[in-house]
Amino acid sequence: MINNELYHHGILGQRWGIRRFRRKDGSLTSAGKKRYYEDSGKQIKVNADGSKTVPVGFTFNRVGKSTQDVNISGATYVSYGKDDASRYIKYMGPTPLNKLLKLSAEAVQHITVKQNLKMPSDKSFAEEIAKFLLSDEKRIKKFNESPYSRIVSGEVGKDVTIENVKGALANPKGKEGQILAYGISGILADPQFSNDAKSLYKEFRQQGYDVLPDLSDRLSGTSKTAMIVINPDKMEITSTTTITKEVLKDARMYVKSLEKLKVSELIS
């Protein structure tokens, strides 16, 4: 006898007639409000040399479009966890000002890692940036055209010199190295420096790296977990959440409950 009957037992914990994520009036349930971020439960591994490995199955969140945002330089900016997802929704969500400036994000992408991603240590990150600048003096000159150079040089109108970059290379974990790494991180998302960003990303890929720390957001007090994925093909979007007014409101309320991130003493 062939049994071809189909049984549906519902979802564990769900009551009949009650929706898990959205009420009949369209408002979010407690479970629904959590859907604007995803957390895989996976942990980033710190390796013996200080580098980090983001494992397969790890979940990032990105506030932006409903499709994966890869910028002109070939990178994707991401973060992870509810805290930073909420912060970015607050900063980039559909507020009246963001809509007016056409900077409003429309969704939160939940992005899953398909292949292990390797990130350099803070020391290696600063070292590679210093070497990159020293390999072509034109890059230092171009960097001096950006507003971030004055943070590295110490004052407005003063250029970053070869000696400054050599100092950063000699002390990559110290102030010289980390503030230079911060300055370069700041220009990576600027379309005017897209070719320089592409060249820098190529250098890091050749060193076996897939993701870089976004020091621009981390040291400025914007985010704790911001990263720049330079091999975005190793990830995929598994779901998205539209940023409605209610999601924006909920994220803002949650951010109020968090301790305000401090601006690093390096740049304050």
Number of strands: 9
Report strand %.
Answer: 5-15%
Radius of gyration: 21 Å
Estimated helix fraction: 25-40%
If strands are numbered along the chain, what order do they take across the biggest sheet?
A: 1-2-6
Order of helices and strands: HEEEEHHEEHHHHHHEHEEH
Which structural class do you get from the secondary structure elements? alpha+beta
Q: Average the pLDDT over all residues and give the rounded result.
A: 88
- Gap from first CA to last CA: 76 Å
Low-confidence stretches: none
Count the DSSP helices. Answer: 11
Task: Give the biggest sheet.
Answer: 3 strands, antiparallel
| The number of domains | 2
Shape: globular
Give the arrangement of secondary structure elements.
Layout: H1 30-33, E1 45-46, E2 52-54, E3 59-64, E4 76-78, H2 82-92, H3 96-100, E5 107-113, E6 117-119, H4 122-134, H5 137-143, H6 149-153, H7 162-170, H8 175-187, H9 194-206, E7 211-213, H10 215-219, E8 227-229, E9 235-242, H11 245-256
Antiparallel strand pairs: 1-2, 2-6, 3-5, 4-8, 5-9, 7-8
Helix pairs in contact: 2-11, 4-7, 4-8, 7-8
